[in-house]
Write a structure and sequence with these properties.
By secondary structure, this protein is mainly alpha-helical. It folds into three domains: 256 residues, no CATH class; 42 residues; 116 residues, STAS domain (Transcription Regulator spoIIAA). The protein has 23 helices and six strands. The longest helix is centred in the middle third of the chain and has 33 residues. The protein is globular, with a radius of gyration of 25 Å. About 3% of the residues have low confidence.
Length: 555
């Protein structure tokens, strides 16, 4: 039952005091300042009113922290849902979205109860990067009208027709709106570049609102777009559910659940890497499921763990799930006492925020790095990206995962080698050394052996092994003679393993690396250049090199 215990219970058992509460309260306020404009912008981009985003941040954000399996996870509406939510609302109405989100919550609870959380490791990096970048392109495209102030009554939902409509209406660009959008964009980028600790999104919104109000600029604002927006929390209620609606919305429910699970667990993994803790994946899914049920009761949007807000929470000093709960309470205070101020916010400023969010979602460095990988990984990345933008997110994920699996099986068949039992040992690392590899370890040296291919299904074991060391040694030998191949996800995990060790001052020696893994590592710049990573021909050479390193360190 330990894996189904919310982290809030664990932290309270460890002892909670005034000092921890102060740290959590400061972090919660910091995240609330970041989440406030984001929640409104994402709600509008999804085809809903901004208050729906704030309600989601309050209800789902509180429940995700209260019942989740991560110490510092912060939840709410995210960019990953924008495309799906927009399409569901357009096809089935807002009640349809609530029904789909409610079913998605039940699916997430079932997934956690059946311990499906660990399956996150089987989603290849090229697929995740491809559909995330595709979503980012769609989000940015959806904001062009508001950013430029174009005179368009109905903007097509499909990508290519949307841009055709934009080019057809380019002569209707509203200069005041464009200048407000550019000003907000410039403020965000400047603050992010020179003073990243300041809440750039909120400052840009406040400045843009003041300028529009003082100069009485004729630009579209939240108040003009949503004149009847409520300024209080709604009473809980449920939409009318029929069997026909359930069957009609079930595919959308699975898509929402899939996205929520993927992003929540990815965010939790990122948080683990930043804090050195470990989340409980199955409890996290259950917490996410209950949070989505709660969001539906108050008319909110789908919710999941938000990577950027979680990282902000950690950097602001969060210690326990109380920080995420406080972030929700601070946003609730704004709804109750300051929501009337939302009416002055220009739509162009919100569009500028979403442009910046979309750029961050693109992970351009990761995207470019994957383009340098072999044709198979590149094909999965580009196909997933193209299908996300031009066809449908669900199709993109399904095709991407299927293609990655087929290509992986093909590569595995190529790595199988047969011999007559007399094959020579390639680098002196035969069974004797394998069985007694720890006997002659110098002090301050740790060794790990990888047996078999490091691919997207098992690459995470490297990071788990790193965490189990406890105190980081001075030198880590990673034996790779029995690794016949690496794919993009395996290379990424080894790179993260090396980075985590490097943060603690440990040197890495890779021994017996075969040609294909050596080539893949070289593609990301890992070579024997003395930058904390070294290559040894065999295990004996690695031991001699490690002993010399520890002697140098001692002296």
């Amino acid at each position: 039952m330990h894996s189904f215990t919310p982290k809030i219970i664990t932290t309270m058992r460890e002892g909670y005091n005034t000092s921890l509460f102060k740290a959590d309260a400061v972090a919660g306020l910091t995240v609330a300042i970041v989440a406030l404009p984001l929640s409104m912008a994402l709600a509008i981009a999804s085809g809903a009113s901004p208050d729906k985003g704030l309600i989601t941040a309050v209800i789902a954000g509180f429940l995700i922290s209260f019942l989740g399996g991560s110490r510092v996870q912060v939840g709410g509406p995210t960019g990953a849902f924008v495309v799906v939510v927009f399409n569901v609302i357009a096809l089935h109405g807002y009640d349809g979205l609530l029904i789909a989100t409610f079913m998605a919550g039940l699916i997430l609870i079932a997934a956690g109860a059946f311990k499906i959380g660990r399956l996150i490791k089987f989603i290849p990096h090229p697929v995740v990067t491809g559909f995330t970048a595709g979503i980012a392109v769609i989000i940015a495209s959806s904001q062009v009208k508001d950013f430029l102030g174009l005179s368009l009554e109905n903007v097509p939902s499909e990508f290519l027709p949307k841009w055709q409509a934009y080019f057809g209406a380019v002569s209707s660009v509203h200069m005041a709106t464009l200048l407000v959008g550019l000003g907000a964009f410039f403020v965000i980028i400047t603050l992010k570049r020179f003073t990243p600790k300041l809440p750039g999104f909120l400052i840009a919104l406040v400045l843009a609102s003041i300028v529009v109000a003082l100069l009485k600029l004729p630009v579209d604002t939240i108040g003009t777009r949503f004149p009847d927006m409520p300024a209080t929390m709604p009473m809980p209620s449920l939409p009318v559910v029929t069997w026909a609606r359930v069957t009609e919305l079930l595919p959308s429910a699975f898509t929402i659940a899939f996205l929520a699970g993927i992003e929540a667990l990815l965010s939790a993994v990122v948080a683990d890497g930043m804090t050195g803790t470990r989340h409980r994946s199955n409890q996290e899914l259950i917490g996410q499921g209950i949070a989505n049920l709660g969001s539906v009761l108050f008319g909110g949007l789908p919710a999941t763990g938000a990577i950027a807000r979680t990282a902000t929470n950690i950097k602001a000093g969060a210690k326990t799930p109380v920080a995420g709960m406080m972030h929700a309470l601070f946003i609730l205070m704004f709804i109750l006492f300051g929501s009337s101020l939302m009416a002055y916010v220009p739509m162009a400023a919100l569009a500028a925020i979403l442009f910046v969010v979309a750029w961050g979602m693109c992970e351009i460095d990761r995207f470019i790095a994957l383009l340098r990988m072999p044709n198979s990984d590149r094909a999965v990345l580009l196909l997933t990206f193209g299908l996300t933008v031009l066809v449908d997110l669900t199709v993109a994920i399904g095709v991407g995962v299927t293609l990655a699996s087929l290509l992986f099986m093909a590569r595995m068949s190529e790595t199988v080698q047969l011999d007559n039992g007399n094959a020579p040992d390639r680098d002196g690392e035969f069974d004797g050394d394998d069985l007694n590899q720890r006997d002659d370890l110098p002090k301050g040296v740790e060794v790990f052996r990888i047996n078999g291919p490091v691919f997207f299904g098992v690459a995470g074991e490297l990071l788990d092994a790193m965490r189990k060391i406890g105190r980081t040694p001075k030198v880590i030998i990673l034996r790779m003679r029995l690794v016949p191949m690496l794919d993009a996800s395996g290379v990424t995990m080894i790179e993260e393993f090396i980075e985590q060790a490097g943060v603690s001052g440990a040197n890495i020696i890779l021994s017996g690396v075969q040609p294909q893994p050596r080539e893949m590592l070289a593609r990301i710049g890992l070579s024997d250049d003395g930058g904390g990573v070294y290559f040894a021909a065999d295990y004996a050479a690695a031991l001699r090199q490690a002993e010399q390193m520890t002697l140098v360190t001692v002296h």
